[in-house]
Amino acid sequence: MDWTEILIEVAARYAEAAGDIAQMASSGGIYVEDYSNLEQEALEIARIDLIDEELLKKDRTKAVIHVYISPEENPAEAVSFLSERYTAAGITHTVSTRICRNEDWENNWKQYFKPLPIGERLLIRPLWVDDYDAGGRIVLNMEPGVSFGTGTHETTRLCLEAIERQLGGKGQASFLDIGCGSGILSVAALLLGAERAVAVDIDSLAVKIARENGTANGFSEPRYTVLNGNLTDRVTGRFDIVAANIVADAIVALSKDIKSFLKPSGVFIASGIIDLRENDVLAAFSENGLEVSERRGQGGWLCFVTKQKE
Fold it and tell me: Which residue, of 105, 134, 164, is where some domain finishes?
């Protein structure tokens, strides 16, 4: 499995500020490619005045920030985070990604994904780790696939912790996981006591991985159903708990009709929201008859638990 390199192009005058923001999203380091002061820096740092012709041809008006994302994390989350931060800072930018090939990474990357305690009751265990101490926690066996969610990102942790708190008081609840990725939220909900769970994702590979993770934990249809679809377009019925760990724009869109999937006393857990978009999301909740009963944040990300207004 390969690392992902995110490339953010900005005007050279924003190179330092853009680099500072990039540090917030990088798990594997960054470097800033900036040639605006090439001659001066060559003299001061390298002590040379003979510079390669190819370097002299570089665009001095632009800088490129290179951000490296490890395989166990979701590059899309990092791209979303960075884009929203740069927009809020008034930094015009373009973003692209590419794979950092490493022929040995297929096995080597796994050393960075260890058993991880979440909340009060869960332990996420990579399938390839056999030597571990659960310490009395419920073990969630997980194969993340191509960075579809491992529990390491703040948004996933916040969402899992919210699910644990909600299931503590709901007994045999029904659960809907929108944008399920690896299926980590829905499988965790079942392990924590949910009676049944439905998961949905637009990515067919994510659907495959979610089903496999369900099987690895002893869950399959009809108790655990994974659908291939966009948001709620293939979902029917009402649920005690609906969770969506996606981006702010999708949360805003979901807010318009999420009540049709909630039981009267049901809750909607919304995570994956960058703090800069909090007001937009809160406005969408208010406009669509949802009130916030819980707000928690970590590392610039927010998770809300909402319910229908009485």
Answer: 105
User: 259: which DSSP letter?
Assistant: G
**pLDDT (tens digit per residue) in 118-133:** 999 999 998 888 888 9
pLDDT tens readout for residues 57-74: 567 788 999 888 877 778
15 with 127, same domain: the answer is no
Task: Give me the domain span that covers residue 250.
Answer: 113-308
User: Do residues 156 and 84 share a domain?
Assistant: no
Say which residues have a Cβ less than 8 Å from residue 146's Cβ, sequence separation at least 6. 1, 71, 205, 209
Distance CA 82, CA 7 (A): 11
Query: What gap in Å lies between CA 262 and CA 270, rounded to an integer?
Result: 13
42 and 143 share a domain?
A: no
And the tokens for 31? 């470097």
User: What pLDDT score does 110 carry?
Assistant: 59
28 burial class (0-12, 13-18, 19+ CB within 10 angstroms)? middle
Count of all residues that appear for the chain in the document: 310
Contacts of 49 (CB under 8 A, 6+ apart): 39, 42, 43
At 267, list the tokens: 């809750």
**Which burial class, exposed, middle or buried, applies to 107 when counting CB atoms under 10 A from its CB (0-12, 13-18, 19+)?**
exposed
Rounded CA separation 99/118 (Å): 30
Q: Are 35 and 59 in contact (CB under 8 A)?
A: yes
pLDDT at 223: 96
How far separated are the first and last CA of the chain, in Å rounded? Answer: 48
What's the mean pLDDT in 87-91? Answer: 91
Q: Supply the CATH number for residue 279's domain.
A: 3.40.50.150
Task: State the pTM of this model.
Answer: 0.68
Whether 90 and 165 map to the same domain: the answer is no
Q: Is the dihedral of CA 135, 140, 146, 147 positive or negative?
A: negative
Of 35, 1, 23, nearest to 148 by C-alpha is 1
